[in-house]
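Journal club side-thread
Mid-discussion, someone asked how the predicted structure for our own chain would compare to the paper's figures. Pasting it here so we can look after the session.
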Amino acid sequence: MSTVQQAATQLPPGPKPLPIFGNLLSFRNDQLGYLQQMQQQYGNMAMFYAGRTPVVVCFRPEHVRYMFTENPRNFTNREMAGNLQELIGDGLLTIDGETHRQQRRMVQPAFHKRRVESYADVMVKHTLEMLESWHEGERLDIARTMQELTLRVVAKCLLNVDLREEASNLGTSFTGMIANPVSLAEGFLRLRIDMPFTSYGRRMAAKRNVDSFIYKVIEQRRTEKQDVGDVLSMLLTTQDEEQSLTDTQIHDHIITFVAAGHETTALALTWTFYLLSEHPAIYKKLLNEVQTVLGNDAPTVDTIGNLPYLEWVLNESMRLYPPAWSQGRRAIEAFDLDGYHFPAGTLLMFSQWVMHRQPDIWEAPTEFRPERWDPASGQKVPQWAYFPFGGGPRMCIGMPFAQMEAKLLLATIVQHYRLQLTSGYHPELLPLITLRPKHGMPMTVHATSSAAEREQSVEANA
């Protein structure tokens, strides 16, 4: 047997590739469904071709554990980040190795527990300001509304900037960066035409708007030389071995934090409101918990700890609709896994979407069951079967911020309004860098009894 034939037998099975394109056309046509079908047909591990490049897809929790915690230094992220690195530069999502470890150590204090908790009042304040503009029976695109809210929150907490008037425009720019994926022509032929009629041109125009905004804020803060207690202040003053961060490094970290920080939380909330609308009994149970624990008081860091059902609802929402639906790695050195030997340079992919829905791991995997997260339920989830924030040394550094924000925003909104999906609307999935609803999430707002009474009182006194 030839060396080529021997190498071929060492790789997992997979669908037959086409010349030139491999399996890329089928994969891009339905990424989520394609990965699920591969898992159902081939089992623990499968392989498809992105053009001429083989990509191994891993479907088991032990595979994730192996790459995340057992051998993390043998797997890099940068090559799989691809387009993301072009958009956000060298932030924690796109750098690797010793550079990643050093940079993460430098910015870690920005997400210290005490600092994160100090942002709670800002999160609730901005949510209440948004709710003041809502009215009974009003129809909103909740996906866009949540994006603008979380963008305002993260900009205030990280940059001490109030985007009350700019959240919509800046949100459009971030959407433009994410929602214009690399086309086949751009990917295969390296055609990068920076014009408004191309996906690449729209992506770059959006990036320039975001870059301009962030660099202006950095320049202004360097001029003012004031520590206002936000993340940008920490980045401007931090040093490691007598080295300060450059403006470019600060920009790359900030754009990473802002992009990832507002996008994922906004989507988690959007999909949560969709699921609650489709499951009124679960909504009522959540509302009862919120009203019982909070009454008319705004939620705080302390009181959200007394809302276990709210946490289960969010956990279950991110299981069914993980904002980050896939991740990838490249092997630095050859390794053995699950009976296969893989050479150095192997590209690997694993999908939260698929693993969070596997029937041999989850009971009734497609059902929205917050109670499955109740420790008393008896359902034990295997470690690494659920990883919405990644894990290991590359676990999302902003996870505590995002978790607290999602709880505070959800509790505050549920206190005041019920969101009902527009009749007859069925959201389509759009798996880009994150898992978005393709045409937004049109919903109608209905005030809870206490909120309705307050609104009527305001109108009567007007």
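Post-session note: The two ends are 87 Å apart (CA to CA).
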